[in-house]
Amino acid sequence: MTWRDPSDARIFEQSTADIFDAICTCVHQVMRSAGVKKEDVKGLGIDATCSLAVVDTQGEPVCVSRGADRCGRPGQRNIVLWADHRAEEEAALINKSGSVVLDYVGGAISVSGINHVSGSYLSSVSAGNGDSEDTVAQEAYAC
After folding, report:
1. Do residues 19 and 44 touch, judged by C-beta distance below 8 A?
2. CA-closest candidate to residue 104, choices 91, 115, 117
3. Is 9 exposed, middle or buried (0-12, 13-18, 19+ CB in 10 A)?
4. DSSP for residue 57
5. Is the separation of the CB atoms in 77 and 108 below 8 Å?
């Protein structure tokens, strides 16, 4: 499900829990219809269009919706979708800065580029939580 802000057409939000549930449902149905046993599966790769998923230090979703009563608090609307353009002013400010960092993004950053850069950084930070690959694999199969 994609949530939209009725007062701001630039906003697109989703839920990591919804996506994970849909992936689990799909994988289980495919395995069942193909007659594949879970013991025969050696790995599973999942890719997605780059978006920014926000979680706390325990991996719990943090709401990105506008409003002091929601934003930054626990909540399922924790993905800023790639199509979200709420950061137009921030993108303009970054582009005016003339920072050398812009050389690595073609000279200017787009609004969706802010989500990509932030999402990639946060993913790499979140992945460095000290869990072994086995623990991560067990948690991924928990669905």
Report:
1. no
2. 117
3. exposed
4. T
5. no
| DSSP of 105-142 | GTTS--HHHHHHHHHHHHHHHHH-SS--HHHHHHHHHT
Place of tokens 């991560």: 136
Q: Is 77 exposed, middle or buried (0-12, 13-18, 19+ CB in 10 A)?
A: buried
Report pLDDT digits (tens) over 36-47. Answer: 998 999 988 888
Map out the domains of the chain as residue ranges: 3-141
Task: Report d(CA 81, CA 85) in Å as an integer.
Answer: 9
Q: In this structure, what are the phi and psi dihedrals at residue 142, rounded to the nearest 5 degrees?
A: -60, -20
Q: In this structure, what token pair is assigned to residue 57?
A: 């230090």
Name 74's bridge partners.
Answer: 62
- Euclidean distance between the first and final Cα of the chain, in Å? 19
- In CATH, the architecture of 3-141 is 2-Layer Sandwich (3.30)
For residue 68, the one-letter residue type is A
Q: What is the pLDDT at residue 115?
A: 65
